[in-house]
Specification:
Oligomer: single chain
Order of helices and strands: HHH
Largest sheet: none
Structural class: mainly alpha
């Protein structure tokens, strides 16, 4: 484990702030239906979370991490909505296809 003073890649608060920005950007990418960008940002989030796990003390980052937690809830809500919308579109397309086949069979 690395304490906040010994990390050459920055301190926990800086990493947490970057994590917050990346999380908010991922949420926006999903809202804009840009799944390629969302995937890149989600992978970056994983890297940042891995960096944060190396710290033994997160005292300076606590308030930022609380904001990250709230942003993650929004992110998950948007992902669930997008998934649900995509599933509904798929179901609608299947119903349309069945109706078209039935009509052609008349």
């Amino acid at each position: 484990m690395i304490n906040t003073n010994g990390n050459p890649n920055g301190n926990a608060k800086n990493i947490a702030e970057t994590l917050l920005v990346v999380t908010l950007n991922a949420t926006q990418a999903i809202q804009l239906d840009d799944w390629e960008l969302a995937g890149q940002l989600l992978r970056r989030r994983e890297q940042l979370l891995t960096q944060l796990e190396r710290f033994t003390a997160l005292d300076g980052a606590t308030s930022v991490l609380e904001k990250v937690r709230a942003a993650e809830k929004d992110l998950l809500r948007n992902m669930e909505k997008a998934t649900s919308d995509a599933f509904q579109s798929l179901l609608q397309a299947q119903k349309y296809k069945k109706a078209r086949k039935a009509y052609q069979g008349l």
